[in-house]
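Example record

The entry below shows one chain as it appears in the dataset: sequence first, then C-alpha cells.
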Amino acid sequence: MTRHGTYPTTAANAVEIRIEKIAQLFHSLDPFPVEEFIVGWARELPPDKPLGIVIHLPETEASTSEAHELGAAFAQYFDYRARVIALDLNELFRVGRRAMAIGLTVLSFSVITGQTAVNLAPGPIGRVIEESLLIFGWVANWRPIEIFLYDWWPIVRRRNLYQRLSAAHVKLRPYKNGDQKRQAVLNK
C-alpha cells in the first residue's frame, strides 16, 4: 500500500516502462535500475491481481525479433531471481536451525547450572546467579526466535513478488520517434 492507503491505478495492474532501445533493459554493467523500477512499482500494486509489464519503445525497436522475445526474457529473469531468493530463504532457515540448536543447548546448560548454583549457594546470591544464567540462556535464543518469527516474512514476500513478475504478461507498445518530440512540445 502507498502512504495514502491505496494502490496506484494503472491499466490492468501493469508496470509501464518507456525505453529508446531494447539494450537499455539488459545493460550488462548495471541491470539493476530497470529491475528496481519494475520491482518498486510492482510492490505497490495489489498483491491479489496478476501483473503486467508494458514496454513503450520506438516502432523500429518493436519490430525486431529481440522485442518479441522480451516476454520470455523477463519471465526467465524474474524466475531466476525468485529461485535465488528461495535459496536465501533456505539459508536463513538453516542458520536459524543451527542458532536454535546452540540457543537451546545454552538455555539447557543455563537452567541446569542455575539450579546447581541455588543448591550450592542458598539465599540471595544463589537466586541472582540462577536468574542471571536463565536470562543469559534466553538471550542465546534471541536470534533463532527472531529468524523464525520475523526475518523470513520479507524474504517470502520478495520471492512471491518475483514469482508474480515472472508470470507477468509483457506487452509492447510501439511509438513513433516523432511522438516523443511532439509530446515534449505539448507538455511545455
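Notes for this example: The longest strand covers residues 52-58. Strands lie at 14-18, 52-58, 169-175.
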